[in-house]
Amino acid sequence: MTRAAWWHCFSGIAGDMALASLLDAGADLAEVERGLRALPVKGWSLDAAKTTKNGLSATHLRVEVAAEAQAERDWAGIRALLRDAAGLPERARQRATDVFARLALAEGHVHGTDPDEAHFHEVGAVDAIVDVVGTCLALESLGVDHVYASPVALGSGTTLSAHGLLPNPAPAVLALLGGAPVRGTGHRLELTTPTGAALLAGLAEAFGPLPAMTISASGYGAGTADLEGVPNVLQVVIGELEAAPAVPEEDGWAELVVLESNLDDVTGEVLAHTISALLAAGALDAWLVPVIAKKGRPGQVVSVLARSADVAGLSQLLASETGTLGIRQHSVSRWAAKRESLEVQVEGFGVRVKAGPHKLKAEHEDCVTAAAALGLPLATVARRAEDLAAERLRGLV
158 pLDDT band (50/70/90 cuts)? Predict the structure, then answer.
């Protein structure tokens, strides 16, 4: 089982609300502050206090920054800042880097510039850096492996920025949330800020309802403004993900969708993680095919077999994990034989076996666990499990 966090963005999301929600759910503020001290950024302090929004108890976070500490930064400067932060937990560093990388791509798209030359105004200020890195540290404090989110509420009207008056939601917010489900509201406030949208773009693996989990904690991060008729808070739910139940396969043809993306700038480790994440999120299959990409570069085509209902979530997951800027999809017909799953005991270790009409196949992960514990070759454990399954199916055991 792995731990997940799900943000319920019914009143939008901002950087301070994200961090406050995790602190409200039990993240260690002292641990977060220690991690932030690893950054070569000075002149800030955190103040987390309880408040109420429309009768709902929540944590409000305020980042105090000395005037002389504020400075405009570009993507290269923030990348170096994160890289040089000795003592920052590696997963928190990578998550924060992913968030700012998404922001750089969005700013470059909005302003027509190279992402490496993108200048961060409000989101490059010390308080925004504290919000982003602090959120990643709080996720680490809670042991969160996966992040999900609901559809995102957006405000209306206009909002003031370093570039002057802009439409609300801001162009950067829309660029960051491309492919994510959103809904407009009548609130003439910036419910979702660029920092909040960047956190979702860099951290959320999929958008939708609360995933199946055993809840261990929940929290509420308060925004500063008060909204009419709804608490201005960001809800977070923390829990252990339940293993996805096996989907019964019908004996026959089904109409499915294949998603594809060409990648030539993603490491093997990221690709392996992406395949695992796609399968865990409901993909029926996922695989890689090596190709020669443009300009003679070696690359991979990642393919995902999915049900139509899962296409949106799996597309978002594929984009967030790999950073791809394009995904193709086409319909396919697949024939699947009827199969069942049964579990046998190999010297006290449970091993699941998939039984089809012509073949038995022991689950690889179960065999790996049993083989390591028993000191047996992997192939031996798999063969014993399949033999036991065959005996059970014949009614011998």
Answer: confident
Class level of CATH domain 252-336:
alpha beta
Name, in order, each residue with C-beta under 8 angstroms of 218's C-beta and a sequence gap of 6 or more.
Answer: 25, 235, 236, 237, 238
1-43, pLDDT tens digit by residue? 689 999 999 999 999 999 999 999 999 999 999 999 999 888 8
Count Cα atoms within 13 angstroms, Cβ side, for 232.
Answer: 19
Report pLDDT digits (tens) over 175-192.
Answer: 999 888 999 999 999 999
Q: Do strands 3-8 and 146-149 pair parallel, antiparallel, or not at all (unpaired)?
A: parallel
What are the residues whose beta carbons fall under 8 Å from the beta carbon of 122, sequence distance 6 or more?
128, 161, 162, 194, 195
- Cβ contact 18:124 at 8 Å: no
CA distances from 307 to 181, 222, 264, 330, 351 (A): 18, 37, 27, 12, 28
How far is residue 216's CA from residue 250's CA, in Å, rounded to a whole number? 36
Compute the distance between CA of residue 33 and CA of residue 267 in angstroms, rounded to an integer: 32
State how far the Cα of 291 lies from the Cα of 279, in Å rounded to an integer. 22
Residue 354 β-bridge partners = 341, 361
Mean pLDDT of the chain: 88
CA distance 83 to 96: 10
Region of 112 (left: φ > 0; alpha: ψ -120 to 50; beta: rest) is left
| pLDDT on residue 248 | 44
- pLDDT confidence band for 152 (50 / 70 / 90): very high
In contact, 162 and 110? CB cutoff 8 Å: no
Beta pairing class for 3-8 and 233-241? antiparallel
Is residue 94 within 8 Å of residue 258, measured between CB atoms?
A: no
Domain ranges of the chain: 3-241, 252-336, 340-393
Helix/strand/coil percent split, the chain, to 5:
35, 30, 30
Asked if residue 153 lies in contact with residue 9, where contact means CB atoms within 8 angstroms, the answer is yes
Q: What is the mean pLDDT of residues 48-59?
A: 97
pLDDT at 362 over 90: yes
Q: Tokens in use for 2?
A: 């792995």
